Amino acid sequence: MSLTLVQKLKQYEKQIVFLHWGSTAEYGKIKYVGMDFVEFEVLDTDTMEYTETVLINHQIILEMVVGGYDISRIIAEYSSKLSMEQK
User: Fold this and answer.
1) Three-class SS of residue 13?
2) Sequential DSSP letters for 27-86
3) Quick one: pLDDT at residue 82?
4) Which residue of 7, 9, 24, 63 could cross-link 3, Cys pair, CB 3.0 to 4.6 Å?
């Protein structure tokens, strides 16, 4: 049995990823995966704050990166910002 893109994206809900769709590519968090769209919160890598929420038709998603050095760095910086805010 093969997974569809929607099923695979659903596995990464609430996680920080690098998403490339159409002519745009951003770091952010997949907030929700529906049957015809993905709700994606764009993360500004300079301020580590979510700047906008984008609804993306899953058919125009070209690439998603869920691991690797860049993703680990973004998660570490975001986590560091969260722990500083809690103090």
Assistant:
1) coil
2) EEEEEEE-SS-EEEEEEETTTTEEEEEEEE-GGGEEEEE-SSHHHHHHHHHHHHHHHHHH
3) 72
4) 7
State the DSSP code for 16.
E
| Domain range annotation of the chain | 5-86
Least Cα distance to 64 among 8, 14, 4 occurs for: 8
Give me the CATH code for the 5-86 domain, please.
Answer: 2.30.30.100
Q: What is the mean pLDDT of residues 18-39?
A: 95
Residues written for the chain: 87
Give how far the C-alpha of residue 75 lies from the chain's centroid of Cα atoms, to the nearest Å: 11
Q: What's this model's pTM, rounded to 2 decimal places?
A: 0.83
Interatomic CA distance for residues 4 and 41, integer angstroms: 22
34 or 86, higher pLDDT: 34
| pLDDT at residue 86, as a whole number | 66
Residue 20, pLDDT score = 96
